[in-house]
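[Q] Does anyone have a clean structure-token version of this?
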Amino acid sequence: LAFFLLFVFTFIGGSFVFVCSVDYSTDGATFQFSTKNSISSALILTPAARWLGARVGAFDIPLERKVHKKPIPRTGGLAIAASLFLAIFISKLIFSEALEGLCWNTLRSYCVAGGVLIFAVGFFDDLKRLSPQIKFAFQVLAASLAFYGGVRIETIFYVEVGSLYFGILSWAITVLWFVLFINAINLIDGLDGLAAGIAFFVAAVMVAVTLINGDRLTAVKFAILAGVLLGFLRYNFNPASIFMGDGGSYFIGYVIAALAIMESIKTQVGIVILIPFVALGIPLIDTIIAPVRRFFRGMPLFQPDKEHVHHRLLRKGLQSKNAVIVIYAITCALCAFALVLTLIHDNKMIALLLISLTVVTAVGIRKLGYLEYFTFDKFYGWFRDVIDGKASQSEHMNFINMRAEIETAENINFLWDNICKVLEFLRFDAGELRVTESKKTKDKTPPNPAQILSWQKQNTVQSKMMRIEVPVSVGNPVNVRLALFKNVTDEDIQPFTLRRVEYLRRSVKTALTKIYSSKKL
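[A] Here you go.
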């Protein structure tokens, strides 16, 4: 599988190099020079940015939710932004006639100002840290500058359907577009080379799309971006010696969002605006799910966590490099799918393909465990708690989060750790999980010794405990019993607590069924 995924990555990269070697511009050397110039710029400037990061102490320190083990400079965004502007400037300077459309004007200056602003905010956050609210405000401001500069989503045209005008909603839709792309690249930047690699594939497929549509100027811009990312990956891929940081991820997301809108404006074809959205499917879906997930977990919407796609792949046993290659392969497949959409002119076929992609995406989201937060019994439990008036919304969201953690447990020990959190949350004083697994043999062989996991609070007096024993039906040959203990002399057990015990039993049953099913396989 690893060799196959590596082949896919090599094939896409080789295809990009091949595209760059073909005469696609009015002057055959323009396209090739711009791409090679951008790669060279990144190869030269990235070590300089790494040195500067070490010099000023701009390190990404390993924390609980980090994957790397040692401090690494996070000033790669400086190299990415500088390489992009330098490559564009040199290409324009040498091939002024071929790139005559790449001229400076007042409106374009607003779009460039937005890019500089979003990079500056991200880079400052790499050095000093800013609150999520401040960063979000600057993202909206940068998107608004691009909107004022003419980079806006006003109309989407569909063949045989007509035009869809957004009118006064144009600003809100444009800002949402920019904010989604900026945060999509930022949130997926959690493993060595992951964000830069995904952005490279998206830029590469947009080169092909723009060339198909005859927009060679935008193709050169995307090719320069792809070249910069390819050069940066030389130092950012596992094991990385530099990270792009928020400055780099913000800037890349902004540039892709802006160039995609520019291409859709020029071609006046509605499907073009969907191409980068489909190609960036994994980070965009992750960005949309993240605040919803945090809401149901009772967390602040902007609080970082370790529940992103790459984190879940790591928890499933993949090594960091293998997880990156898997996401690369999926991104390549999405890029190929997006490219096919541009070649199809039948709206019904496009709709059918998009519906199929939606179904596959939903299955993938379920496999990663994200739908554990939206099951019926969790909402029903919340509704009953609201009726009883015994629990606040934040308390129930915490309980939903704990149940989701239990249901996604992949071994007994991890399961028991999360059960203990629930017992403490429900104000029980002790608990015990007894798992007995018997062998199916013709002779009456006694069952294996029971695996007993126990927990109790400090200073707990066993003689004053009320015992609640909950059988958990997993199916033969596994017998599971969960025992809960509560000191009722200090506090009574409320009806809504017993209801939550039943929900706990269901979650434990779900987890154990998965664990022992995987053992059989």
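[Q] Thanks! Anything notable?
[A] The chain has a mean pLDDT of 77.
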